[in-house]
Amino acid sequence: MITMPEKGRDWSEVRAEMIQRGGGDAQWRDGKTAVYVFNAGPDISAVQHEAYGLYMAENGLGPLAFPSLAQMEKEVIGMGLSLLHGPEGATGAMTSGGTDSITMAMKTARDYARAQGKPREGQNVVLAQSAHLAFDKAAHLMDIEIRRVPLKTDGSYKADPAAMGDAVDEATLMMVGSAPNFPHGIIDPIAELGEVAAKKGVWLHVDACVGGYFAPFARMNGVPVPAFDFEVPAVHSMSADLHKYGYCAKGASTVLFRSEELYSHMPFDMAGWSGAPMKTPTLAGTRPGGAISAAWGVMNTLGVEGYKRLQGQVCATRERMEEGVKRLGFEIVGNPMLGLMAFSHPDAHAFAVYGEIYRRGWFTSVTKEPPSLHLMLSPKHADVVDAYLSDLEASLKAVMGGTSGPGVEARYS
């Protein structure tokens, strides 16, 4: 059993041990990791650290005590809505991450459905097979059925609006589209999903946890990103992570709503206990002030021009990766437009190749359907494309030649 030491140690000694313990972790600072960390370089990392530290002790739970944090959160939400075509009256809140944002969107849709007199029995959410598992997690918490619908059969790896519409019934709380989905990096046909949702009278949520702070700038750079946000009239809510391609400190995400009336079903408000009345907008009580201040700091430091530069760099890196893996005989899954990509080889199982690339020091990921290698690229990866492709080629040769090592478990966890 681990026990607390009777006497504390000097901080320099403790700090040295912490650094030593991290020596075996994934080497994300060197660009060797293509999941979990979004590396925009040391300058932005310094902004994250300092901006977080300035409000590290403050608590977003208390807007009256810390109006500075409340104003920064309001401005972060405003910046997000301005990028995502939020109409007049749109609003939202910051959360701790994508799972938190998705959970709160589902809770809000559930309570809105109750207010509209929808049945409480058989409540369900309809989404594509590729939608993030955070919806299942939220559904488990709220005892809501998840109806996963197969993707289109045309090789696009997009959601199938017609099939999703067929899965909707009178107790459906929400339909979900992804922009992009995590497994393949593909943007679902949100406008078509919007037409189905409007016809069925169902709440449409867009999970833009990955793309919310990427796709607008990619579009500014000339990437033909289709309509995916509040530009589509049927979109009721969105989830968009700041600590992914917003390059903000963890954990910071946004959950956004088309109107105050929709948003009003999210907060928890209670006075019937022995303490003071309390109202919280999201699942959390205490809300780390540093996550709010760091987001505000990074967004204001980068500005539109900074984000355009970084996202343009990521798109260019993805294109270089696509060209490189194709030269090795891999096939790209679908048509990715942003920073995510998945690719498979017709003659080598992706999971075996993953084991070999992992042994060469790369911590990336895999996709199960279809079995593919998976990359979530950051600006730092522009420096390591050639090194990755060289190790990928060696890994492929080892698998094809029957000289690969023992298997390595690949998990998104």
TrEMBL record:
Gene3D superfamilies: Aspartate Aminotransferase, domain 1, Type I PLP-dependent aspartate aminotransferase-like (Major domain)
Residues that bear N6-(pyridoxal phosphate)lysine: K244
Cofactor: pyridoxal 5'-phosphate
Record key words, sorted: Lyase, Pyridoxal phosphate
Record-level GO BP terms: carboxylic acid metabolic process
MF annotations from Gene Ontology: carbon-carbon lyase activity; pyridoxal phosphate binding
Coiled coil: none
Record-stated family: Belongs to the group II decarboxylase family. Sphingosine-1-phosphate lyase subfamily.
Protein name according to UniProt: Sphingosine-1-phosphate lyase
Lineage: Bacteria, Pseudomonadati, Pseudomonadota, Alphaproteobacteria, Hyphomonadales
